[in-house]
């Protein structure tokens, strides 16, 4: 690619992707609502509020691929989620439609299915069960991606990210952890395969504990390499075992199921 | 019930429901963004813009059940759909949460799954495939209903209405037609059953042609009685047979799949 | 048939079957632990404790078919269930094996799957979820029938009876009611079909409300004719609507899910 | 339609269709390897060996629809089946491709799935289990139809006919019987629907006994009206009940499963 | 844990678990109907007949977890199985209920599904097909565990053990072998996970040959490490290949399917 | 085995199998329509046209196993496919029936399911979707194998070979590649297992990209060891990425979907 856009590039995952995805394009365009200091020579920086349609069109122009990490990443008030994750996402898809439909990796979330039990095993075809307004906005985003695919041929990978962190730090993350390297490897495949379609992909590493069956996207050739296993003993030794009916042990979405509706 | 709220009461379905659902409550509260003239003695009228949170709270206060037909019923610009079907729906669920969670019948739509082929048979568990921004807004609504059910115990029936009209008038409606009587009978069951849960229901009469399997809601005891069969001969005699690859013959959503993105 | 054995013949269902099944055999052998007065000319009476192996062998000798209604029909102490429903059932199958394997209709129960929600729809392949020791004994019985079929060719129909009563009398029975006539019609088919195999059959009439899909036994040619519909209005008018989280509204097994472990 | 071709028109089903399908087209073209005497004014007659490619092309020319009943209808030697059902079918599809792809109703057979047990319930997606060379030739035909659909857009309905006779005459036919009227009604729908696709359809009337779930073709709007029920008592009274392990009671294909490989 | 109870501790699996599970608790309580000589310092010994309710209550008192290997492990007379595996299991669950519901690992068996073909692949949701009275007793046990989970919150893992031996010694065990280390690793996970629920788990190592899909318990984080592969060449070289219709090659339960009903 | 027959032995796969399968039998009988020069001491050579029934009977006589690679391996005219793949296959199965039913490995093909999308994941139970006359002939062959299994007990493994080549050379082969070693290992298992049955097996190595789920034949104990991964970078660097709607990227059968009907 000539230019790969990463939105939400100032965040934790975005920062981790800057070096890991640099080889995919001549230029990385880094976008965020926050300023991004000190771009590298292969990087260009755009400050952009996703709710600003014109700004989003400018941001997308000239890009061959988009890793869309931008938006609100946790439970917030409806207005905040509306602006960033609903209006912002519509703006992004409209901009992509206007600019030759670059392939999109959309950071969806496990919170789109957070009310399933941890003892249940899901596929991409499992009906959604969002656990928060944030989760509802991710269902909206996946639906928007589906519509743009069928109507306009826009290819989008919706990745229901588990916990994309440096390492797992609690018992739930033994199942949900997605290493930065595995996420980057997934992004490579999303942009490499001849035909992407519009898949739902669960974003977790090759953990021994797992809730999600990615069989429907085996055509991508993504094989996660990391595992939470090397931190299991430490985590089980240093954190108390929750009761079986504690929401963090009961639901895939963990404590998001306990979040109230936030006021602005 | 003491008071049953019907939103969108000035529209075609709403008007048809006024007489058919009158026996369910002492008072029908009829709401619409348009004025509703000449209420009957058992009716009270509220004019309400769904995007106005305070007005929605007032509209919902004191109601024991809600038939939510309000909002934009066809493809429109994103802003129009955003206000009525996304912000408006959030307002409705927040108002219900604030007022003892009256049971809701939510008018979802076949356009939430409009990109399936007419040769496919769906269940409530089939992944959504919206055919328009309108259809995406219905997926949003169903997701919101699911979240309010699991988090707050709010019971909602999402009815994916086919074509709720006086009679079928084209070949696609031989499969999608929902008679006013059958819709009213469904509404009765939604408010009668001891436990509603949060089901997805396909809204079609007992037509010979059908695409949708309602097996998952057989616990409701809803048995549609009408059929498009008595108009089949007339429709097939008076309307040309579309080509097999005409979108009206190919997709469940029919011409909605051909709608462009509307500008304001 | 020359002789059809009905066990539990003194009970409610047994009594209702005496006239309804008389045409299936020259002689009805009526068995019960309680005495049965006044047999008709085509009837012979046997008093039998199912826990008494020799008595069971005598009871079964000479019969061409068995309708096994005997045993404890509700939650009781483990010892009572053990004697009648576990030891007694083993005795029955051993007696059948010793006497040319007459076909058996085994009265299993919805309480073998009583912990499913009323909003779930089951097939014969749904894993069991018994709601009581009584329900566990029915799972045992179905397993025993399966083993005798595969090992010895013993054909048995396990009928998970809903509520086999004269008429439905509460809201849950709108879904679970099995009329005496429909049960008798089922028994006819069990003894008429060339090959019975060893099916699981849900025993409910053609009620509008239903939780159970009998598709896997459509080869039997059983089509229930009765429906709870004609009592729905009366029942809904005269009985209060339970709360959605009341066990009688939540679980298929109803109040059996609330039964404690009984002491002797 | 202007001209509807019926092949195998001299056979039992073909004869029954002449009057029943006359209203579908201005002219019925009746074809058979045997002569057909006394055509009606709306009929034209063609004598044709399906193995003769040129003759088949002539037969198909000018037709708007094809009901293909021709070929060997029972177990025969491989050479006979090869000529009529394999070479003959290829000729038919090539002729259709050369002549504007008239829609085809292909008489497939239950013997394509004859080795399933009668206690099993099949859908159109059940893998084939042919019971004879005849059955294998029907699998070949369905595969050919599928390929011509995907490659050339040729629409074909493959109807796995049970027992299309005047009335059922044995116990197996209580499940497999397809009345002439119901078959004709199916043919009407095949030629009436805007989009046919390339479905597998089980051809049985609305019998109480049934082994086949036609849910996947509910979009056709075909609702069989007849039932074997009115002959059940007579058949069960006048024919002996086969043993449970008799092939006529065990397998859906009945005695075809016992046919040896025929020599020429 | 403070105290982990192992029943059947004098048997082969029990002996193998003594060292492998010692690290899970401060004290291992070893129980068996046979005496267990020479307990280690961290072990305490209880002699107990499972049919003796009071003895079972004493055995369970003070334990934080139970590995229930006790009972009859092969086909025996009904009375033997009744006492040890039916009455004995009820006693165990009652004792657990009386003593704060310690988590239970219940040694179920592949003989609960022994009549499936070796060419079939099962999940935890596959209906049971027991191959013996022993197998029926395991179905009873799993049903009892299910009921105690739903009614009382008792968490139990039912492990359908294949062949838990030092090494595989025949061709069937190439598929069914469960190494002692893998079983111990499973037991660790059963007691470690925050929420166990009431799962069915197939107990086999990571053999190349396998019949069972443990996808539904991937949340446990159990990954078997051993494989029968290193003995395959030896076994295939030194044991004759059974005929395809030999029960040891045909059924998952192997020769248990050939066991007669044992007399006392 | 004493004698293993390899048909099509002069072809690419056949040649690769000569050394790899030599250890399975004392003698390899190599057959082809083309001459095979220079047989090794353990090899015997037969020149045979599969359409010649007598020659096929001679070829099969005395063999304990058959690896049937013979026939037309690509799209050809109907007559060529008819002779080699339809008549020829019938001759082979008749010969096997006449000569004690040696186990057969039948080289079926991914072109039996070539019209599935590359984004779909198939199992052995997925309905066939052939992409060519060649593909149709493979469906015929699998159906014939099924019939001979159920009727005569003939065991056959139908292997839907992807791309059995020395190495993958294009992007589609990243998913479809089957190494010669993995194919040979599969053949070993087919002849080693006590019970083969009549399975459908997808023939692909352990590639990261994959479309096919072989779960239903996990009982065979076949674990492919090779992967296309080591050629991925080279292939992606040296071959252009096809457009998402290019048939080589869209369909599992690749360019076969674009093959016209060949004339002789």
Automatic annotation (TrEMBL), chains A, B, C, D, E, F:
<comment type="similarity">
    <text>Belongs to the NAD(P)-dependent epimerase/dehydratase family.</text>
</comment>
<keyword id="KW-0520">NAD</keyword>
<protein>
    <submittedName>
        <fullName>Uronate dehydrogenase</fullName>
    </submittedName>
</protein>
<keyword id="KW-0560">Oxidoreductase</keyword>
<dbReference type="Pfam" id="PF01370">
    <property type="entry name" value="Epimerase"/>
</dbReference>
<dbReference type="GO" id="GO:0016491">
    <property type="term" value="F:oxidoreductase activity"/>
</dbReference>
<feature type="domain" description="NAD-dependent epimerase/dehydratase">
    <location>
        <begin position="5"/>
        <end position="167"/>
    </location>
</feature>
<dbReference type="InterPro" id="IPR001509">
    <property type="entry name" value="Epimerase_deHydtase"/>
</dbReference>
<dbReference type="InterPro" id="IPR036291">
    <property type="entry name" value="NAD(P)-bd_dom_sf"/>
</dbReference>
């Amino acid at each position: 690619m000539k230019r790969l856009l990463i939105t939400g590039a100032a965040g934790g995952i975005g920062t981790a992707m800057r070096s890991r995805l640099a080889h995919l394009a001549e230029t990385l365009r880094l976008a965020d609502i926050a300023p991004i200091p000190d771009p590298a020579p292969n990087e260009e920086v755009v400050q952009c509020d996703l709710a600003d349609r014109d700004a989003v069109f400018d941001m997308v122009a000239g890009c061959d691929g988009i890793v869309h990490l931008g938006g609100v990443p946790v439970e917030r008030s409806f207005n905040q989620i509306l602006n960033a994750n609903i209006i912002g996402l519509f703006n992004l898809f409209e901009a992509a439609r206007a600019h030759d439909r670059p392939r999109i990796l959309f950071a969806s979330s496990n919170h789109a299915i957070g009310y399933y039990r941890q003892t249940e095993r899901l596929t991409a075809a499992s009906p959604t069960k969002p656990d928060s307004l944030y989760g509802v906005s991710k269902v909206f985003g996946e639906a928007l991606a589906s519509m743009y695919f069928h109507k306009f041929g826009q290819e989008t990978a919706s990745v229901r990210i588990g916990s994309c962190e440096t390492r797992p730090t609690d018992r739930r993350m033994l199942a949900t952890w997605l290493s930065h390297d595995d996420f980057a490897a997934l992004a490579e495949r999303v942009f490499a395969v001849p035909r992407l379609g519009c898949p739902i992909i669960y974003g977790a590493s090759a953990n021994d504990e797992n809730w999600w069956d990615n069989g429907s996207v085996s055509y991508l050739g993504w094989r996660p390499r990391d595992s939470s296993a090397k931190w299991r003993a430490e985590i089980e030794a240093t954190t108390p075992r929750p009761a079986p009916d504690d929401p963090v042990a009961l639901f895939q979405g963990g404590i998001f199921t306990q979040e109230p509706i936030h006021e602005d």
